[in-house]
Specification:
It contains 11 helices and 10 strands. The strands form 2 sheets. A 6-stranded mixed β-sheet has the order 6-7-8-3-9-10, with helices on both faces. The longest helix has 18 residues. It is globular, with a radius of gyration of 19 Å. The protein is of the alpha/beta class.
């Protein structure tokens, strides 16, 4: 479904040779859950923004190839990219409160991609929104549909963001640190929801995180980035049990462990 070949990303205001992403190559199968991990500044989020065509051509130089579902992202028109983004590729960001319009009710925000990409009537859009909210396991979708973002908890807002992302039944869902701002209990619920979406809808998920503990719970395969380079990849258990790179070993060693009380 996704093929990345020798992807390089350079911000035009950065020093020559200081690429944010340094020639990475990576493949992702249809319906796969792939974890992309690394510390802040590793290049993982910039890579995701390139995949979803969210980087400005005026501010970045990109070379290499990104092939999604047979289409070359770098040789696709703006109109096609706009149609692809929000229908075939959707993104769930870390902070739903800053991603949502505070003065707009939840329902219309969830419907937004349908308004842009389909000719559905207002009633049809609402029906799909309520179904997406139910799929995201939001309690009482009819009630939440008419609420404003500030009236919901962080966990419920993140589920609303997921509902907005899956309403168009995308082939690829990019989740950029979607559980970082949530407490552990709510985090577990979001991970379970993503697994359910993957299992029931066959949606491929690219899960970006600095937290290898979370990645191990959700993903079947993991790719590790460090300073713009892809340094290690493989099945999650294989990488966790037998990491090859010192950087990966340090990330794994930093995972908190529960100590039994004596």
């Amino acid at each position: 479904m996704l093929h990345i070949q020798d992807l390089r990303i350079h911000f035009r205001d950065a020093a020559p040779g200081k690429d944010a992403v340094k020639g990475i190559s990576l493949d992702m199968a249809e319906g796969e859950i792939l974890g992309l991990v690394g510390e802040s500044g590793s290049g993982k989020t910039v890579t995701a923004m390139a995949l979803s065509s969210l980087l400005s051509n005026a501010k970045t130089e990109m070379t290499g190839k990104i092939i999604f579902d047979g289409k070359d992202i770098f040789n696709t028109s703006r109109e096609e990219l706009r149609a692809m983004r929000g229908s075939d590729i959707c993104v769930v960001f870390q902070e739903p409160m800053t991603s949502m319009d505070p003065v707009m009710r939840i329902g219309p925000q969830i419907e937004e991609s349908l308004l842009i990409h389909t000719d559905l009537s207002a009633q049809e859009r609402k029906e799909k929104a309520l179904q997406a909210m139910a799929d995201a396991e939001l309690p009482d979708p009819e009630l939440i549909y008419n609420k404003y973002p500030h009236e919901l908890s962080g966990g419920m807002l993140q589920r609303c963001m997921i509902a907005a992302a899956i309403i168009s039944e995308p082939k690829l869902l990019i989740c950029d640190e979607p559980t970082t701002a949530l407490d552990v209990t709510i985090q577990e619920g979001i991970l379970a929801l993503l697994k359910k979406i993957n299992r029931e809808k066959g949606t491929g998920i690219l899960f970006i995180s600095h937290n290898l503990h979370v990645v191990r719970k959700l993903c079947s395969r993991v790719a590790v980035m460090c300073r713009g380079e892809l340094i290690e990849e493989g099945p999650v258990d294989e990488v966790f049990l037998n990491p090859q790179q010192d950087y990966t070993k340090r990330l794994i060693a930093a995972i908190p462990t529960r100590r039994k009380r004596g």
